[in-house]
Amino acid sequence: MHDALQKELATYEKRTPKSAAAHKRALERIPLGVASNYRHYEPYPIFVKDGKG
User: Fold this and answer.
1) 3-class DSSP state of 52
2) pLDDT tens string 1-51
3) Which of 8, 25, 46, 48 has a Cα-to-Cα distance from 32 of 20 to 30 A?
4) What is the pTM of this model?
5) Up-side HSE of residue 48: CA atoms within 13 Å toward CB?
6) Is the Cβ–Cβ distance between 18 and 47 less than 8 Å?
7) DSSP 15-51
8) Sequence ranges of the domains in the chain
9) CA–CA separation, 15 vs 26, rounded Å?
10) Distances in whole angstroms, Cα of residue 10 to Cα of each of 4, 47, 53
């Protein structure tokens, strides 16, 4: 299980570098980098710029 989790985590980090950068900037202003603690998870939450539909 540990190996599978590490693989998924590496994939997540590879696919979401802009979310990592946004979270790093948010940490400078907001505790945990999010507006409420239930939105925080490791290594960082996904930040969404916009959406359609």
Assistant:
1) coil
2) 799 999 999 999 999 999 999 999 999 999 988 888 888 888 999 888 899
3) 8
4) 0.78
5) 4
6) yes
7) H-HHHHHHHHHHHTTSGGGSSSGGG--SS-PPP----
8) 2-32
9) 19
10) 10, 18, 29
- Which residue's structure tokens are 């980098």? 33
The amino acid present at 50, given as its one-letter code, is D
If phi > 0 it is left, if psi is from -120 to 50 it is alpha, else beta; for residue 32 that is left
φ/ψ of residue 15, rounded to 5 = -85, -15
Cβ-based neighbours of 16, under 8 Å, separated by 6 or more: 44, 46
